[in-house]
Amino acid sequence: MSETTKKQRLGAYDQAVEHWEKTYAQNLANERPVYNRSGIEIDPLYLPDTDPPLDYVDRLGLPGQPLIPGASTPRCTGAAPGASGN
Q1: What is the rounded distance in angstroms from the CA atom of residue 6 to the CA atom of residue 53?
Q2: Three-class DSSP category at 35
Q3: Handedness of CA 73, 77, 80, 85 (dihedral sign)
Q4: Peptide bond into 52 cis (omega under 30)
Q5: Distance in angstroms (rounded) separating the CA atoms of residues 82 and 11
Q6: Contact residues for 36 (Cβ-Cβ < 8 A; gap 6+)
Q7: CA distance 35 to 70
Q8: Is 3 helix (H, G, I), strand (E, B) or coil?
C-alpha cells in the first residue's frame, strides 16, 4: 500500500472521529454521565489506543454510523398484540 493511500485512510479515520464527536456534542453532550458498577465513568466513545487499522472506518465504523432505523412493529413499541389503547 502506498504512503499516499495510508495517509488518505488515516485522514478518513480522523474525519469520521471528528464527525462523530460533533454529532455527539450536538445531540447528547448535556446528558448526565454514565457509571459502571464500580463507579467509574464510562466514556461515550472508545477508540484504539494505538494507530488504528487502515480499514477501521470501512470495516467497523463508529457507533451510530450509519444510522439505520428499524422496522416499526408492535414488538418494537412494546405494545402487546391485540391490546387496545383505551
Answers
A1: 10
A2: strand
A3: negative
A4: no
A5: 52
A6: 42
A7: 28
A8: helix
Residue 28 one-letter amino acid: L
Q: How many CA atoms lie within 13 A of 40 on its CB side?
A: 3
pTM: 0.51
In eight-state DSSP terms, residue 51 is P
Q: For the beta carbon of residue 20, count every other beta carbon within 10 angstroms.
A: 18
Place of cell 454521565: 33
Is 80 exceeded by the pLDDT of residue 65? no
Asked if pLDDT for residue 32 goes beyond 80, the answer is yes
Give dist(CA 71, CA 20) in Å, integer: 24
- C-alpha grid cell, residue 71: 422496522
- Domains in the chain: boundaries: 3-76
Amino acid making up residue 14 = D
Q: Which residue has the cell 463508529?
A: 62
